[in-house]
């Protein structure tokens, strides 16, 4: 499925609150917070010139989030950042003054952290970030996982000392259960999706993601003309689209949101012109994107800042993983998990379809920006799909 944005608010300025959440000042704050993380480093921006020539575009750059903060996905930027922000705010209320991130491990802040429990639902990656953030500050974490989350991903969350709470059903069921249990226990929900009356914290999560856009704009020789970003509930797509809209204004790139065909809640929302919940059907290999209800906050931004919406099939996602692992000629290899290469899957599908290519105005001058949103967060599944271990592909990259 491929749709151009025909929403009445398309190309309108972002809501002022959203522009503030995803703007330059917010990005500066995120980068300052990151400077206090011991293992923080900018992730690489990888150029794929041979693939670009093969599909007839000027450049392809992939922001490789497989290296982010030791967690293997872009989610490392969001959940932990929100946890830290919320702890400092709680400490400020307790102490009766503003508390700076430089005081995060102070004797005054630690007792506040010990009194807090942060909860969330997850497909895997967001829960790791919230659990890591809680461990960093000395708080507790309760992570709700649905039946489709692999044992490897659950174990990766548990390594940070989080309480794991299993939920029968889908991701959306785990979102509802986390909210219910957290309210009953006085815990703080740090969700990466929003619903009526709950937007500020998901906004903080999205704000954390802006760091990868800021880094990419510094790393690229020229701003991109086209962006393809995968979408679950819409958070990463909205964060990238929103920041580019604020930062570049009328020069912003053509932005395409890419959904799994089996979990296309953002595409169906775009088609309906309003947020819709889709039926939970057959599972998708793109496990981190298997969401059935869009984030209201993300949709409000994408309705204005996205240009097109499309779906990719299971084979498209698998092909993109393999393409990145075994690249054209001397392009560098990239380890991308099942959801990591979905933006590339969208690009390859659009570039090979004359109608989509024309609608998006992709040509020999186009400069494409993609995000590898996750590395091999389930190494066994990765090797099963790609036919080689993540370590073997990483070794090939270094050769």
TrEMBL record:
Residue ranges that the Swiss-Prot or TrEMBL entry lists as coiled coil: none
InterPro entries recorded: DiNH2opropionate_NH3_lyase, TrpB-like_PALP, TrpB-like_PALP_sf
Pfam families attached to this UniProt entry: PALP
Keywords for the protein's UniProt record, in alphabetical order: Lyase, Plasmid, Pyridoxal phosphate
SUPFAM superfamilies documented for this protein: Tryptophan synthase beta subunit-like PLP-dependent enzymes
Source superkingdom: Bacteria
Domain Tryptophan synthase beta chain-like PALP: 40-357
GO MF terms held by the record: diaminopropionate ammonia-lyase activity; pyridoxal phosphate binding
Cofactors required: pyridoxal 5'-phosphate
NCBIfam families: diampropi_NH3ly (TIGR01747), PRK08206.1 (NF006058)
Protein's name in the database: Diaminopropionate ammonia-lyase
Native source organism of the sequence: Sinorhizobium medicae (strain WSM419) (Ensifer medicae)
Lineage per the UniProt record: Bacteria, Pseudomonadati, Pseudomonadota, Alphaproteobacteria, Hyphomicrobiales
